[in-house]
Amino acid sequence: MIPTLLSPDRLKACFAADYTEAHIKFRHACDRHDHSAYREFVYREKGPTNEKLFSSVYWLGNPNAKRVLVLQSATHGVEGFAGSAIQIDCLDDFLESKLDDDLAILFIHALNPYGFAWLRRVNENGIDLNRNFVDFNAPLPDNTAYAELAELLLPGSEKNINEADRKLQLARQQLGQVAFEQAVSGGQYAFADGLFYGGQAASQSQLYLQQIITDFELLKREYVAVVDIHTGLGPFGYGELICDHPPESKGVQWAKQVYGQSVTEPALGSSSSVPKDGLVDYYWQNCLADKLCFITLEFGTYPVEQMFDILRLDHMLHRHTVNWRDSHVQKIKRQLRQHFYPATADWQEMVLLRGRQIIRQALQGLSA
Ligand SMILES: [Zn+2]
Description:
Blueprint: H1 8-14, H2 19-31, E1 38-46, E2 52-61, E3 67-73, H3 80-94, E4 103-109, H4 113-118, H5 144-153, H6 161-175, H7 177-185, H8 204-215, E5 223-236, E6 239-242, H9 250-259, E7 263-264, H10 280-288, E8 292-300, H11 304-317, H12 327-340, H13 345-367
Parallel strand pairs: 3-4, 3-5, 5-8, 6-7
Antiparallel strand pairs: 1-2, 2-4, 6-8
Helix pairs in contact: 1-3, 2-3, 3-13, 5-6, 5-7, 6-7, 9-13, 11-12
Bound molecules: zinc ion (ZN).
Zinc ion binds at residues 76, 79, 230.
């Protein structure tokens, strides 16, 4: 018999095929603990088959714990499969033993349930939540480089896409890969149906997150470690730890001390991610300053060019009312799901194992 670290049953128990299954599995995982600690934040919008949408929140451990690990999933909707599975695995199996009295884990399941259900990165208003955390009372960040590419990224019709691609290739060569990626994905506030759009006001999810931070009195805690789980960037199955705290700040120091040398920093060019505007990370940093370490746990899938191509098709699709049962719609949605959730056993196993490692490291760091 070859020993296995994770059985096929375990993978099946943790991963879901769609948002509703993920939501139900998460709720059941919470039910096995203290049921009263479970809460749901309901959304106005519905899923593609008229299902209800929630951000579900669960507090595991002493309500007065001084130090808190926050596990957040589906900030980017369709990327929620991995984060949801890590959360369920953690609730189900990993933490059989009781947490130390000073420690608690706050699970935020599906911060963007609309995107999770509709297999989109963005929310009900086409907003990328991870570009939405800017000060809307101040002038919004200006991304002229995106404006110059906007027409090529999302041409009027899918028929024009080959011609647009040739021009985009040229732009990529002229700008260089990093500057090109930053122009496209760094965040923009001028094209509401465009890629990586940050919005014109705080999103519903942002307001719920603010409420969660207030309701669970996170500002009063001694230390908070947030792990926000994403997919779609970097080598297949590898869980990169991306740290967007300012270089050499206390947050970076904590991250490196606790998670080790695999921590990368977009600001220093060591990450598969580029510096971006309006990250949810910055909101947490504003709230908690030196009492916080926020990391993005990003699981790789396929090349970034493929991601841009699929996102372009999705945005062109959602310019019009989407008929969920239409075969063209289903084809594009299958590609989106595949890109952000490959769903093979090797990928799933890598996700859960890395998830367990990061959770253990975070809890050890918080206990020290
Ligand atoms: Zn993401």
